Amino acid sequence: MAARTPLSHGTPMTASFSYFRRPPHVMAAAVVALALSAAPAFAQAALTPELEAAVQAVQRATQADADQYAPAELAGARQSLAQAQAAHAAREKKAAFDLALRAAVDADLARARSQEAVASAEVAQRKAEIADLQAQIGAEGRR
Asked: Coil, helix or strand for 23?
């Protein structure tokens, strides 16, 4: 297409890039080159299944209040996860794998200990309620 001349200025406008015609095989080659150049960056950023499982395990432990009931185990899991992520970034696959598994196990232990502490507190509360009710029943029976 021809370039247009605006009415207010005396200088002609340049044609838009959308008007440049390229053969389809040139465009296809450009798309393939772009996709291949982006693939290594995506592969490096993608987490391994073990690392993703460790991240999720730490999140589950945090949601189970492991910060309160199992802080040492959760801190160990977070430290192992950070080391696993650093090893993954450095492309140390074996170290990243081992550390991710360790983080997941530590996080699962923290979650289990937290759930145990919550359950124990609930049992203690129920026992106290039962003792109160038994005391009330005993006091009413003596009247």
From this structure: coil
Token pair 């106290």: residue: 128
- pLDDT band at residue 23 under the 50/70/90 scheme: low
| pLDDT at 89 (0 to 100) | 94
Beta carbons within 8 Å of 84's beta carbon, 6+ residues apart: 51, 54, 95, 96, 99, 100, 102, 103
CA 102 to chain CA centroid, nearest Å: 17
The one-letter amino acid code at 1 reads: M
Q: How far is CA 106 from the centre of its chain?
A: 16
Main-chain phi, psi angles of 131, to 5 degrees = -60, -40
* Dihedral in degrees, nearest 10, Cα atoms 21, 27, 33, 37: 70
Q: Give 39's pLDDT tier (boundaries 50, 70, 90).
A: very low
Q: What is the C-alpha end-to-end distance of the chain, expressed in Å?
A: 107
Q: In the structure encoding, which two tokens stand for residue 91, read together?
A: 């492309």
119: burial class by Cβ within 10 Å (0-12, 13-18, 19+)? exposed
* Burial status of residue 75 (CB atoms within 10 A of its CB: 0-12, 13-18, 19 or more): middle
Paired tokens of 15 = 């044609």
Instruction: Please indicate, yes or no, whether the overall pTM of this predicted structure exceeds 0.85.
Output: no
